[in-house]
Amino acid sequence: QVQVVESGGGLVQAGGSLRLSCAASGRTFSRYATGWFRQAPGKEREFVAAISWSGGSTYYADSVKGRFTISRDNAKNTVYLQMNSLKPEDTAVYYCAAPDGPSRSMEVVHGTYDGDWGRGTQVTVSS
To answer: If DSSP codes are grouped into helix, strand and coil, which group holds residue 30?
Structure first.
């Protein structure tokens, strides 16, 4: 079973930047694609970005393309989300997916992941 802990959230002004980290335990984390989702107040959780196990392929929601960059360091079992040019509509709790197998991993890439999550990290962007 993979467990993840997200960090790096905070309060930032519009136009600012934050870097989120997702540290994972478990030997299998580096074998599978994973990614980030977010949930704003009163809204459903939505896909933000995903990355293949090797880091060679990345996928983004249209709303964050060109502003967010996902990356990973498998030696550290960590996935990152660099967020630039932040907007108030980016305000949400950001969650890292913790897929424990290939099926769950593909759900992350397709944006339909419904497996285990971390506790999330709050990102608040003020206007």
So the answer is: helix
Model pLDDT for residues 11-54, shown as the tens digit of each residue: 999 999 999 999 999 878 889 999 999 999 999 999 999 999 99
Residues near 2 by Cβ (< 8 Å), separated by ≥ 6? 24, 25, 26, 28, 29, 98, 99, 100, 116
Rounded to 10 degrees, what is the CA torsion of 111, 56, 1, 41? -40
DSSP secondary structure letters along 80-113: EEEE-S--GGG-EEEEEB---SHHHHHHHHHT--
Helix (H, G, I), strand (E, B) or coil at 124: strand
CA distance 64 to 36: 12
CA dihedral angle for residue 53, residue 55, residue 57, residue 59, rounded to 10 degrees: 90
If one counts every other C-beta atom within 10 angstroms of the C-beta of residue 38, the result is 24
Largest CA distance in the chain: 41
